[in-house]
Design brief:
206 residues, mainly alpha, three-stranded mixed β-sheet, 10 helices, globular
Amino acid sequence: MAAKLSDTGREFSEYQEYIEGLIDFAADNKRDASGSREFAGRCCKKRTMNDLPFWKSKTLAEMSVPEWESLCDGCGLCCLNKIEEWDSGDIYFTSVSCKLLDGESCRCSSYENRWDFVPDCVQLTKENVPDIAWLPPTCGYRLVNEGRDLYWWHPLVSGDPETVHAAGISARGRSINENEIDLDDLEDYVVDWPLTVGEEKDDEDA
């Protein structure tokens, strides 16, 4: 859980500064009332919007292109093939990945040119995120759109792109490339874990 501590690094630093200030204050018994007020203002600073990371201070629409791209946690769940029922419109995940998904990194192997190989690849945009019901509950775009914070294992929080895999959130080790199966058998690979991984982690953290 060492990676999780990075989520509270700034808060710990501020708390440490606060404690050190209290020690200094207690040692100086000659400090007058105005000095006490000055100290209180220094050690009890309020956090402003500028102190918050961009995913807490901006909406999806307000993000720059680099910020938007970095919001992807690299789980690869979006790149799993899905089956939609014609009658109900229900969508089911499978453990079969797009042919362009790198099973180890869980990143697209030809991101810039993906439409040349997969014309029906769905691109997430700032406009369509609210309308895509199949986004995994752990998806950074979905979380921010719903006004929620990113999980500790998100690379933007942990600073390490491997934590999403170490936390058991990604498709690494439990998907198969579509080039390795007969797509007529896709229904045999229906799974529900892409929609429950976040629930499992919430239970563990509770």
